[in-house]
Every structure is written in C-alpha cells, then in structure tokens.
Amino acid sequence: MAEEKIQRYTAPALEKGLDILELLSATVVGLSLSEIARDLGRSVSEIFRMLVVLQERGYIAQDPASEKYGLTTRLFEVAHRTPLIQRLTTAAEPLMRDLAHRINQSVHLAILADDAVLIVGQVDPPARHVMSVRLGTRVDLWRASSGRVMMAFQDEDRLAEMLRRTPLPEGADERRLRADLAQIRKSGHEVVDSFVVKGVVNISVPIIDHSGHAVAALTVPHIERFGESVSLADCCVQAIGIADKLTRRLGGGVGYDRSSGTAGTSSDAKQASTSAIVS
Prior knowledge:
This protein is of the alpha+beta class. The chain has helices at 2-8, 12-24, 33-40, 44-56, 74-79, 83-103, 145-152, 156-165, 174-187, 232-249, 266-278; strands at 60-62, 69-71, 107-113, 116-123, 138-140, 190-193, 201-208, 214-222, 256-257, 262-263. The strands form 3 sheets. Strands 5-4-3-8-7-6 form a 6-stranded antiparallel sheet, sandwiched between helices. A two-stranded antiparallel sheet has the order 1-2. The radius of gyration is 22 Å and the shape is globular. 30% of the residues are buried.
C-alpha cells in the first residue's frame, strides 16, 4: 500500500533536474545541451528549460568557449550546510592541518552517505609527493578502510542492513569481514594496505558519537619516502590522538578505551593504543 501511494505522486520537473545534476557529476569536461538530452533520452527543448533554471540558481555553469555545461561548487556548499558535516569540518580542519604538517602525510575525513564513503575533508602536507583524495569523492563501502572502521562501530541491525544493500566484492567472505570488523572494534582503529593503491598503508580511526557509533573516520593514506623522519607507528599514534580530540569535541567517546572497546581513562587508552601499534 505504501509503495503504491509513493508511486502515485510524481514530480517530473524535479526528476529531470536531478537527472541532469547526476549526469553532470559523472563528467569531467562537461556536456553540451544535445549531449545531455541524448544521454537522458529527452527532448532538447525540455532539457534547455531545466538548464536555464539550474544555471540561474547557480548549480551549473556553461563554458563560453565549448558551450558545455558543468557543475559548480553549489551542491558541495549546500551539502556542507548540514549540521553533521558542518560541525565535523569546522572542528576537524585545524586539527587535520596541524596533523598533516607534523607527520608530513595527507589526511582526509570521511562519512557514510548512501551506502558509500564520502570524503568531506582533505588536507595535504608540505611535502612534494603526496597521496590525497579529492573532496566529494565517493568510494565503495567495502573498498575503503574508512568505511570498514565506521561500520565496525555500528549496531548489528545497521550492519546487517548495510550488508544487505551493499553486496561484498567478488571473492569476499562475510564471515571474514565480520571477523575483521570485530578486530577493528577491539583495537579501535585499523592499519591496512590500501585496497586501491599499491604501496599505500591506510591508517583509519573512527570518530565516535555519544551513543558509541562512528559518525566519521579520520584516515591517513601513508606513503613511505626516503629519509622520512616520522615513522608509521608515530603517524598512527598521532592520528589516533586527533580522532580522539574530534570525538570529544563532538560530545562522544567519553572514557572510551580504543584498545579494548571498554570504558577507561584517556591516558589508559592512549598507552594501550601506542603499545598495540609498536608491537
């Protein structure tokens, strides 16, 4: 009954506008009016009307030379007005910038969005060679260490729902994944080879809210350079420290011991986490 009721109400103009935005989000060089109409299977006249409105509202812009349309940063700006992202990025930016300079590695902040990992914060270090992820990038849930550490700190109902909606990659085993998530929850973080780029080791630490669930993840895609003065172990310790600060600033994780998943003092947690990394 509910599904029938939902299908009875439609908003064709809104759907066309969203189709255009989603189509343009997948292109780097933009698309012309005729290309958009062709790809969406609609007439040039109806697409033109939508483009005019979207352009007037600042969501798209047309290149004068190529006459191709592309997205502006308007969607990004609107997304960052949401309370969670705004609070996270406001609290995280200075801490991430300081961390990136101290460990000479890139740092990014991610949240869960529509069963995927969304990068909402990114800071590069002063080094010439860096490994960074662009703001707004979406990564498949199970191919991101940040996704794994966030899912490790969800309740069973949410985790089961995510597994149902987001199939595991070919060859992956749910029992092994659940064992990995249990280990991440026990240690409070994950240090693992990148699932995307060879030679990169991801240090991912969840940011916990008042209920004990992860609302975000701080990740350092660590690359090893010749003559590097800061070790991987030191990067881990400092990344954990910054994630703990963010957790406390958001009002969560009070007394949480990352090394055991139980209550404890902040000093106990830091000491245990350091010992686990070094060993």
